[in-house]
Amino acid sequence: MRLINRLFQRSCLCMLLLLICQSYNVALAQNERKITGKIVDDQNLPLPGTSVSVKGTSKAIATGSDGAFTITAKKGDVLTVKSIGFETKEIVVTDAATYTITLNQGSTDLSDVVVVGYGKSTKKALISSISSIKGDDLNKGAISDVGQMLQGKVPGLNISRSGDPNRNAAIVMRGASTLREGAQSPLFVIDGVPGADISLLAPDDIASIDVLKDAAAAAIYGNRAANGVIMVTTKRGSAGQTQVAYSTYFGVENVSNQYEMMNAEQLKAFLARNNSALTPANDQGANTNWQNEVQRKDAISQNHNLSLSGGTDKTTYNASLNYFKQQGIVRTSDLDRFIGRIGLEQKALNDKLKVGLNLSNSISDADLVPYRNTVLSQMLTYLPTSPVKNPDGSYFDNLIQTSYYNPVSMLENATENLKTKNILGTFTINLKLPFGFSYDVAASYQNTQTIYGAFYNSIYTSRYNNVRNTPDPPANPSFVSLVGKDGLALRNAYQNTNKIVETYLTWNKKFGDHDINAVIGYSYQQSLNNDGLQTSATNFPINQVGYYNLSLGNPYAVTDFRVNYGPEYLYQEILLISDFARVNYNYKNKYLLQGSIRKDGSNVFGKNEKWGYFPSIGAGWNLDQEDFLKNQSLISTLKLRGSYGVAGNSLGFAPLSTKLIYGAVGQFYYNGSPREGAYGAIQNENPNLRWEKTATANIGMDFSIFKGRLGGSVDFYDKRTTDLIIGFDVDQNLYPSGQLTANVGKLSNKGVEIVLNGTPVSNDNFSWTTGINLAHNVNKVLTLSDSQFKIDDRLIFQPDGGGQSGATLQILSPGQPIGTFFTYKYAGKDANGVSQYYDAAGNIKTQGLLNKTDYYVIGNAQPKALIGWTNNVRYKNFDLSVFMRAVLGNKIMNVTRADLFRPNTAQFTNIPVEVENESTADFNSYRYSSRFLENGSYLRLDNATLGYTIKKNIIPGVGSLRLYTTANNLFVITGYKGIDPEINQGGLAPGVDTNNFYPKTRTFLFGLNVSFN
């Protein structure tokens, strides 16, 4: 806290000094002069209140009642002219002293350029549901993941993220469209490269993000677009003076919330009241707060970005370097990342040919926490009366108790590191041809290399060699035996390569009132994944070896040790060949039509289903262009649109997924004696396995009123997935293996999305813009059966807490959404203080309950509403942005709290303070049930940023300078009793808090952005 105060004092001092400097009158450069002019609309009427600014500076004025303006600028400067309800225009200052500038009517938002697949469009010409966010409007803070930058910004985009800097956010668009784990993420397209790795992106390099939500927009990407498409456009160089910019911030993170566990005094008092006491082995006279010992008091983050851009009318260039470092709030975890980018565009042949070359390289060094969730669990349950270390400096452990580990010792005696090198090179050619044609070729190569190392030293292998591993749901917990002694090391190195060549012909032609845009193209993609090797060793002479020099170990002296060569069938070669076409038709800018189709062929599906077809069609009507709306001043823009399209999902499949595979199946018995080396079928062939297909119907409206002061959109959608890919148990009399992967089942998502943007106040000194978005989605499993395979339901996730073997939490069932909680129904306590539950017949019982038989459907993890609210305020040179978001109506199963709710085991593990009034006779208190199903709704003040911009020429050589301070996660309003209500909303088991609660942090940043002349 002292560090934060010191930083804050210094920042305030710097701000004060700069404000003092600002008060001095600094002479303008000699080559600047007064520029006068008038802003009018397309009917030559003056536009009062129009903003006129000098691009790249803080100089800005507003026109008077007659539309006139006066501003100082020099030749070559760019004047940016903005007026609510009109298109933005940029004018280059020449030798002229007076200018008359005409603005065309139309919402600024609707005239923005939007990136779509294999082309661009204006929002006014769109018939699809697409959300666009400029780079300056993305979430700010110590952010290592693109997903977090989009949280709350796009209606229908459900993003959840833990506090772990080394884990990406879970992203679900318009509800889950698949039942396969790891196959719900949207397709990322970076500068036209589909499937590019988002770790290549630094926040400062992002110019805009366009989110393609409905199938009419996304179907052009065919079999990869069922979950939506996120198009990322990075910054490019522009003709003019060389621009050098530097941005940086320094941040301090603190834990935002902790579980209130008993301290030593509270625990002893609780036991004494219940005629019990700690064992001598556990009562060491300490008073340890294990959460404080495992977590850092202050986690430091920093970011530095240096960029260079410029060029001529023939050649433009840009380059940037970014360094990001973030300490995790859990000790020993952090992320260190370096990103370099360079881009070059050259025009030739009288500007008819444009050649582009872009190269990006990312190097990440991530320190992970071995058995992370186990450490987090032990952090809560380890007794406060135990010390971190013994008097002799060794780590304390009570090894008499099973599954009871010193969490600090686990942190310090194991190491896990992942280094990732990612390079992406893209070469593009655009050739303008006669008769409105243009031809594009794009070739890209991406190479990702990972080097992983893990080392568990001699203390770890001797004390924690039977670790209870608790992975994130829906994977079930299990005990992992670390076979080895005197240290165990694992090392692997893999690389993935992705080659893409795409070529397409575009035709833009206008015939009077008719405007046609057509695209036809071809795509070839080859991916080689998991090309590498893995090995392990044990029995090292010293711990200092780590995971290096594995040859120093002697693994063959350890009985039963086997070298870990990695997963079988890991290497993959995936081929994807596609043809695509799209036609857009525009009549008088009133009536819009669009149709597209993509044909995809891939080697990952059955031999009879290699090809898939993904069509779309849509129409739009710009009512504001009709005569009956032209003689009114209320409505500036009004558009109706509707679309229907089909997209596919091929995530998570390898070429061997549909093949008949034989492997080891156990022991072979001969004459009553077991023999090694029994082989049999371990995977069935399915030549008819095909893509999942998601069809989306979308009806929407875009509007702006009061000359653009209020605008927004409304979308209704119906999204249905068919041919769900699920594994089924089959009769081995009919199939070689006991399970078959097949296309069976249907899934539905229906919802509404609303966006409202307004500018309540806008004048020369003060402006306020605000925007709110709201999304509601209803998810439902329609069926899991067909004529061949019959399944009524499927139980999901077994936390396996003590005394609850076989208990599951969720169910996949027709008529219910993904994330439906299916468990016991709590009925209060009996006269003896023992928890009771309802059986299937409604009787109240304390014993004799049966898993599944006595379960009830008690709620689901799907939120009823997602809300994001942005406010931007400017007063002279000060700017303030505040962003809040809310998730409403979802349920969370607090397994962590249930596992801690054990008053009768307080002799051996710590318990929460809230349990102090519970009876130790309650042997049922911790049972997974509706008792621990909590309301997951929350409202979070996600981001607040206050900045000050220094005017141009105050500091010689500096074009602009902005100082700012940002606070993230300032507060959360919620009734949830866990660490944080933002529990993973992705996957097959959303909304389950099961010791996977890497703590959220509250962050304070201090930064600056500066550009040089």
Q: How many helix segments? A: 10
The name of the CATH topology of the largest domain is: Maltoporin, Chain A
Helix proportion of residues, in percent? under 10%
Number of domains: 4
- The 3D shape can be described as globular
CATH top level assignment of the largest domain: Mainly Beta
Instruction: Report the strand count.
Output: 54
Instruction: Tell me the Rg in angstroms.
Output: 31 Å
Descriptive notes:
It contains ten helices and 54 strands. The protein has 1013 residues and is mostly beta strands. The chain has a 22-stranded antiparallel β-barrel. A five-stranded mixed beta sheet has the order 10-15-16-13-14. It has a four-stranded antiparallel beta sheet with strand order 3-2-5-6, with no helix packed on it. Pfam families: CarbopepD_reg_2, Plug, TonB_dep_Rec_b-barrel.
Layout: helices, strands, pairs:
Layout: H1 2-22, E1 33-41, E2 51-54, E3 60-62, E4 68-73, E5 78-82, E6 89-92, E7 98-103, H2 108-111, E8 113-116, E9 119-122, E10 130-134, H3 146-150, E11 157-160, E12 170-173, E13 187-190, E14 193-194, E15 206-212, H4 215-218, E16 229-234, E17 240-255, H5 264-273, H6 290-294, E18 299-311, E19 315-327, E20 334-348, E21 353-368, H7 372-381, H8 407-412, E22 414-432, E23 437-456, H9 458-463, E24 466-469, E25 478-481, E26 488-511, E27 514-538, E28 572-587, E29 591-602, E30 611-622, E31 635-649, E32 661-670, E33 673-683, E34 692-705, E35 710-722, E36 725-729, E37 739-743, E38 746-762, E39 766-783, E40 794-796, E41 810-812, E42 820-823, E43 825-829, E44 835-838, E45 844-845, E46 856-860, E47 865-875, E48 878-888, E49 891-894, H10 895-900, E50 933-935, E51 938-950, E52 958-974, E53 992-993, E54 1001-1012
Parallel strand pairs: 1-7, 13-16, 49-53
Antiparallel strand pairs: 1-4, 2-3, 2-5, 5-6, 8-9, 10-15, 11-12, 13-14, 15-16, 17-18, 17-54, 18-19, 19-20, 20-21, 21-22, 22-23, 23-26, 24-25, 26-27, 27-28, 28-29, 29-30, 30-31, 31-34, 32-33, 34-35, 35-38, 36-37, 38-39, 39-47, 40-41, 41-42, 42-46, 43-44, 44-45, 47-48, 48-51, 49-50, 51-52, 52-54
